[in-house]
Write a structure and sequence with these properties.
This protein is an alpha+beta fold and 144 residues long. It starts with 7 loop residues before the first helix and ends in a 6-residue tail after the last helix. Helix 2 links the parallel strand 1 and strand 2. The strands form two sheets. The protein has a three-stranded mixed sheet with strand order 1-2-3. A two-stranded antiparallel ribbon has the order 4-5. It has one domain: CBS-domain. The protein contains five helices and five strands.
């Protein structure tokens, strides 16, 4: 599969969710325990926002928020930009760069089905570079 053929559904990961009424403390623990950079915020199983490590750090350091008493809904990003499963890799990169976002939920028929992070894109690029290097080593004339 070439990079031009890759769609959101090919690279998305399982989203980690948190309830909008959860505390920042709960969100921090979930981020640490799962090793992800963002949590999808849900309310009654409906996508309502996203909260990132950066959002939480900013709210504590500069917003004076208390991690025990502050709800995720108070610091989350509500105006979500999402993509569909068939969105091309090119469009995904454009959306993330043009909107300065590092996490992009994948939605199908208003249902959250995945998430793509800037880290996922870097891993994909790294794999593509490895394939090119391998190809050049195995077929010397390909590097000329």
């Amino acid at each position: 599969m070439s990079l031009h053929e890759i769609k959101a559904s090919d690279i998305m990961k399982e989203p980690i969710t948190i309830d909008s009424n959860a505390s920042l403390e709960e969100a921090i623990l979930k981020l640490i325990n799962t090793g992800v950079g963002s949590l999808i915020v849900v309310e009654n199983n409906k996508l309502v926002g996203i909260v990132t490590k950066r959002d939480i750090i900013w709210s504590i350091m500069y917003g004076g928020k208390n991690i025990v008493n502050t709800k995720v809904s108070e610091v989350m990003t509500k105006q979500l930009i999402t993509v569909k499963p068939d969105t091309s890799l090119h469009d995904i990169v454009d959306i993330m760069l043009n909107n300065n976002i590092s996490h992009l939920p994948v939605v199908d028929n208003d249902e959250l089905i995945g998430i793509i992070s800037d880290r996922d894109l870097v891993e994909l690029l790294s794999e593509a570079i490895d394939v090119i290097k391998w190809y050049k080593e195995k077929i010397p004339e390909a590097s000329e």
